[in-house]
Amino acid sequence: MVFFNSKFDLVILKQALEHIKFPDDLLRDVQHLLNDGGHVYIEVPDLDMCLDNILDDFHPEHVSYFTEMTLRQLLNKAGFKAIIEKKRKFSLCFCIESTGNTDCL
Question: If phi over 0 gives left and psi between -120 and 50 gives alpha, with beta otherwise, what is residue 2?
Fold first, then answer.
């Protein structure tokens, strides 16, 4: 990881997590980058909404796909909880914070 000893109040993963083959590993790394009380903003395509337009919205560079339920499960598994959730037309937007539970790491 590039930011060995750096800590941040905010990490933004906007339209990025779907490009990561192992998003749970990335979220574990993000846990270590956050200051106490830090937040993460995540925005990903909403698979439920994109299924209607799968041929129009297919992107071969997307290697991970999320519905609201699967994203929430991933976040919980990585020790995060959603504090703000918003759906846009084709995206899920979450502002999350650490639960403090590092047993999952």
Answer: alpha
DSSP string, 57-78: H--TT----B-HHHHHHHHHHT
For 65, residues 6+ apart whose C-beta sits below 8 A from its C-beta are 18, 45, 47
CA dihedral 91, 86, 74, 83 (to 10 degrees): 160
At 14, list the tokens: 């906007």
In which band, very low, low, confident or very high, does the pLDDT at 24 lie, cut at 50, 70 and 90? very high
pLDDT for residue 104 is more than 70: no
Q: How far apart are CA 72 and CA 76, in angstroms?
A: 6
Tell me the three state secondary structure of residue 28: helix
